[in-house]
Amino acid sequence: MPATPHVEKHFTSTEVVRDIVIGMSDGLTVPFALAAGISGAVSSARIIVVAGLAEIVAGSIAMGLGGFLAARTDLEHYRTERERETRETKAVPELETEEVAQVFRDYGMTDDQVGPVVAAISGDRKRWVDFMMRFELGLEEPDPNRAPQSAATIAVSYIAGGLIPLSPYMLVTGVGNALWVSVVVTLAALLIFGYIKGRFTGLNPLRGAIQTAAIGGLAAAAAFTIARAIS
Amino acid sequence: MPATPHVEKHFTSTEVVRDIVIGMSDGLTVPFALAAGISGAVSSARIIVVAGLAEIVAGSIAMGLGGFLAARTDLEHYRTERERETRETKAVPELETEEVAQVFRDYGMTDDQVGPVVAAISGDRKRWVDFMMRFELGLEEPDPNRAPQSAATIAVSYIAGGLIPLSPYMLVTGVGNALWVSVVVTLAALLIFGYIKGRFTGLNPLRGAIQTAAIGGLAAAAAFTIARAIS
User: Fold this and answer.
1) CA A38 to CA A44: how far, in whole Å?
2) What's the pLDDT tens digit per position in A11-49?
3) Complex prediction ipTM
4) Which terminus of chain A, N or C, has less C-beta within 10 A?
5) Are A153 and A20 in contact (CB under 8 A)?
6) Which of A202, A59, A83, A67 is nearest to A133 (CA)?
């Protein structure tokens, strides 16, 4: 048996699918709950559709653009920390080699064993800084191309997800009927996406399905209850 | 100059403040954009307040509960991978020691240098598995207490943040007036929270302020435009 199939799995469970599932299950949840909530207070399908579309637009921008900027911040943070580490290996090399040594001492190695390891790592500045970034700071270099791609995927999936609970209010006559169609269609979609999400996060897929549907259902029920209570 | 203040900074920039800022800036953005959007289509402040509160309830549940379950999934994932690594150190120790050796070879160490390091690390199973988790899989053990606390903090902050853009619609007479008060108050709040967020993520605070306000403003403008277009 090869010892590293789980590592492979980490890297191949396509990030794009993960982004689609994240965007879509969030897109399903909040617009669904919002539309259901408003339907507890108003009887005009038009208002529900307007509010739902406004939410989808706002949510997809906040999620997509917010995610993009956060990823860019991570990349800048990585680069800033990396520059600082590089400067420190030049300015205070003895402190930085001591930090490398400490990492290995923490794994129970004696000073005799640590010596050559530290010498090997600090013999090449790039490797040395690589080591400090990964093992001291626990930072991995973010992929600069991932951020825009990931943000766009999440935003588009959010929009696609949000249109699922909203479409019954556009197509079915009567807010009450539309609400029930929306509940059935959306819970089914949440179950499917929760299942896929579970598979991609290594969780039990059935539990993923139930959890995702439960969050959506709970959010919708709470939104419905509060909207009805105040109107 | 101590070489590790940046490490300290990582761990002490209180996670709670970070959660408050995350929840609050998201809570400010989507309910703000939603309320502004609906105000482009309807003239009833009551409907805007109902929709806004429904969104706040739905969003805080989706964000809080979703975040909580995601954190619990991370913890379970860590434990599953850890059990698998522990099993593998027993079942295929030669492959696992080879994986440890490979990590150090990648840092330019010779086989002579790698030998004692691998022996020291694999001499204690807990350390060995610790090493594999951190350096091979890049996984850190999540704090089991963080998840519920973080989820609750984010949810409550989302609610508090969402009430800021919504309160003018409850307090100011006339949807048009309320919209302008909401825009001014919310943009000011987004600037403040973006500034704080920038400080806590190591970004330039002024840029954080402008970015956060820009996302909120853009989301609100887009929601307003689409709501007005379809109504």
Assistant:
1) 9
2) 334 678 878 887 888 899 999 999 999 998 888 999 999
3) 0.78
4) N
5) yes
6) A83
pLDDT, averaged per 10 consecutive residues of chain B (231 residues), comes to: 35 68 86 92 90 93 83 83 90 89 82 82 87 81 82 93 96 94 95 86 83 90 89 75
Tokens standing for residue A146: 């991932």
The pLDDT of residue A11: 37
Which of B1, B8, B30 would you mutate first to test chain A, the one with the most A CBs within 10 A?
B30
- Dmax (CA) for chain B in angstroms is 80
Structure pTM?
0.80
Question: What is the pLDDT at residue A19?
Answer: 82
- The pLDDT-based confidence of A7 (bands split at 50, 70, 90) is very low
Q: Shortest Cα distance from B117 to chain A (angstroms)? A: 7
Contact call for residues B231 and A73 (beta carbons, < 8 A): no
Over the stretch B2-37, which tens digit does the pLDDT of each residue have?
333 333 334 334 678 878 887 888 899 999 999 999
Q: Token pair of A23, please?
A: 């965007």
Handedness of CA B53, B55, B58, B59 (dihedral sign): negative
Task: Please report residues of A whose CB lies closer than 8 A to that of B138.
Answer: 134, 140
- Look up tokens 């600069």; give the residue: A144
Within its chain, how far is the Cα of A33 from the centroid? 20
Q: How far is CA A179 from the centre of its chain?
A: 29
Look at the alpha carbons of B162, B164, B169, B171 in this order and tell me if their dihedral is positive or negative.
positive
Interface of B with A in 184-203 (CB under 8 A): 201-203
CB proximity list for B146: less than 8 A, separation 6 or greater: B15, B71
Count the neighbouring beta carbons within 10 Å of the beta carbon of residue A161: 30
